[in-house]
Amino acid sequence: MRVRMFWVLVFSFVAFSILTIRTGYIQLWNGAELTKKAEELWGRSIPAEPERGLIVDRNGEVLAGNKHAPTVYVIPSQIDDPEQTAKTLAAVLGEKESLLYERMTKRSSIERLSSKGRHLSTDKAREVAELQLKGIWLGEDSVRNYVWKERLAHIIGFTGADNQGLAGIEAYYDQKLSGKAGSIQMFTDAKGNEMPGLVNDYNEPVNGMDLQLTIDADIQAVMERELDLAQKTYKPDAAMSIAMDPNTGEILAMSSRPSYDPSRFQEYDPDIYNRNLPVWNTFEPGSTFKIITLAAALEENKVDLDKDHFFDPGYVEVNGTRLRCWKREGHGHQSFLEVVQNSCNPGFVELGTRLGEKTLFSYIRKFGFGEKTGIDLYGEGTGILFTEQSAGPVEAATAAFGQGVAVTPIQQVAAVSAAVNGGILYKPYVAKSWTNPVSGIKETIHKPDQVRRVISEETSAQIRRALESVVAKGTGRNAFVDGYRIGGKTGTAQKAKDGGYLENNHIVSFIGMAPANDPKVVIYTAIDNPKGTVQFGGTVAAPIVGKMMEDILPLLNVSKQSNQIEKEKTWSDPELIVVPDLVGLTKDQLKEQLVNVNIVVEGNGSTVVSQSPKSGVKIEAGSKLRVLLK
Amino acid sequence: MLEGSGFAVSAHGIDKVFLLLVLLLTGTGLFMVASAGEVWGQFNYGNSFYFVERQALFAGVGLIAMSFFAKLPYLFWKQYASVGLAAAFLLLIAVLIPGIGMVRNGSQSWIGVGALSFQPSEWMKMALVFYLAAILSERKKVIHLFWKGLFTPLVTIGAAFGFIMLQPDLGTAAVMGGTAFLLLFSAGAPIRFFATIGALAISGLVLLIASAPYRIKRITAYLDPWSDPLGSGFQIIQSLYAVGPGGLFGHGYGESRQKYYYLPEPQTDFIFAIWTEETGFLGALWVIILFFLLIWRGIYIAMRLDDPFGTLLVFGLTGMLSLQSFINLGVVTGLIPVTGVTLPFLSYGGSSLTMTLLLAGIVLSTSRHMR
Q: Which ranges does the record mark as transmembrane (chain B) (predicted)?
């Protein structure tokens, strides 16, 4: 009997030792983890939302700020009379009483109100605070303040209901802009009353990093003004513009129409805010693309601009296909510099033929076409090029004057920048640096990123000279600004749809750079289907870029020079055009009449029977020329 | 039956060590109830001291009972063992009759009116110890035989166990059954018998779980309380949230957080959780060591008695205390599933404390006859 009792004693010693070890394990080993979990249980934390980082322009001007906008939190266990509380709060917030009642009676430690209870105005928040309702709390919160509204909308983008970046820079750099939420922690007993002996904790939220863009707000303002004006004048389907520093790839301004107000983005067609046209839109570039052909031909020593000459009869035949010049009767005898000035299609076909399809396409690719530029914005287009196999002589010939390839505006800006900056292709970017709002420490996001050298310094200098003469003496003369050496190239491209071209529907464009001796800015502007005008790049887009240059160059500290190529006086009355004889032409032939007048068609026939005014009369460019069809 | 050493006046009085341990535990208990019951006392009765005042009263009554039974010759319990057992069975049957028995916490285990209500199962626990000590001390020679030695005690244990499980009260049934087997073991029942019983118990346990689904829930909750934090795992989690943050020294006396309505009824079954939250691992050690010393001293007394009945009686009562305290501490620390057993001496409760002290009095009375 005693032996067995002794064993029971030994056994209970073992059992109580296990108990001791178990208690020690919970308290000394597991204690910290259990404490953490328990504090979650005791704590009612009212979130303190961080403010998003500011988005500022290159000079520190705020483009996207924040507005104080507290949010209502409900701690159900602290509410004694949910019915009355819901009623009172509903009246102030303008929210449904039943909805509030539901949240106040939910079995939950804390509830965050949405819609009407989220992001209150300062006045509303004060009203709520003055109610002094038990169990109703206001948590720190903020909403974005888009100072520039519709302007810059596509670059900045917008945030959603939870201040998360949804589009543009806001989405691309969301993580660092967001910051980290903090909280006010109250320790309460299981009935929601404050627990004695435990100090409330305030974990300060960490605000987001401030983001500095390469955008210059003043340059952007000029661009927005000009696009607004173009919008009003031409009522186009769309408009887009980019200004870039050709020596770094920094985007100085970028805009497009139609635009939207980021703080009310829900009210717009998603296509409007999802498509950032300057990087997304893919279309035939038209004549602006001739700069690439010119660069390739010069670099490969296939042409001497001054010594080589060319005769344009108004068309050229390649492999049995007749390719027309935009000027029906042809440009006649020209030097190749004049070919560039006149934007003569057969002249460029000649350059394309001299290069051969292989070489031409290798330059097109080297200039960055056919692949994304890699700009730090979402939704960039790739463009469409002929594949190496399908590119024959005809394809090379059309590509030489900008047809049969599809590119994005940003690709053109990057490529033309490379052509004029001394020959180096840069990767474009809009985000410059982060600034820690507390320490002020800066952190570079992008430095100028050279993709590759495409052409030599000498070739680049020749291109600058040629482009300056286009503005001084050629199709780009409407971009001429006295004292500023502007160079550039017009473009008029038919819009392709369902395998064919749309009628009387062009994207007219101009790409310019200045000053021509040392370009500080490249500006591209395209107007999609302008109304009430002849759809010519030289008529619509060139003057817009000219006006932008006039106001932007002083902002870049570029002073006027006296040694620019003089504007040709013979072109000083280009406003007057000799009316061509259209009688007897078919409807299709009529469409090929890319004369600088606005042809108004009347009647339903297929042949022109009469016109007004008659042929030979001089009229102002862009004025109406009525024709009657029968 | 009234002759023998059990009725002679002792030469050296009661065992002071056992008495000291009992007093320390009771004192610690009052200290614990004062803090653990503070919040609920204020909430339910508008008096923070409600529970400790009443517990002090129960302790006073219990101590008077203890000193009375410490003087009562222990053979009294042998003499009236059968009567006590019969009364216990009658009460156990009565409590099952609707209208007589009262349901609390899902078990029909209370009888009586208001403050005078008590649990017949508590009484059965003790009556069974008296009965087994008496019958096993008489059957020392035939204990290895099944029919002549073990059959009657087994039937009695089985019946008592069955009635308590009908309430159902798994905790009390487990303590009582465990105590009964400790007694059979010490009395010298053959090992093969325990092996058989063990096998039967396991299959019985499986049946019990199958018959009442809430038991399996309690067991799964015990394995992973966080699988159902608001349901079956609730008590264990709340208990661990008290014990764990206590650390080595605790938050300090009176500084418990879990007693603020998080841990249900912190002054009864889970009082040890609040105690360790406030006094830390050191406080836990204090209580565990006191209990172990009490067991050691109880077995020490039992082994130094010449009368087999006295030996078995003290051993049985000590075994009951040790089993009950082990189960309670195991539940609080998440070592075993929640069963609803109070912690002797420490948990708030009139019948629990007075019964425990009464039982200590019987041990003290027996201790007068130590060698």
A: 17-36, 56-76, 83-103, 109-133, 145-164, 170-187, 194-216, 280-300, 312-339, 345-364
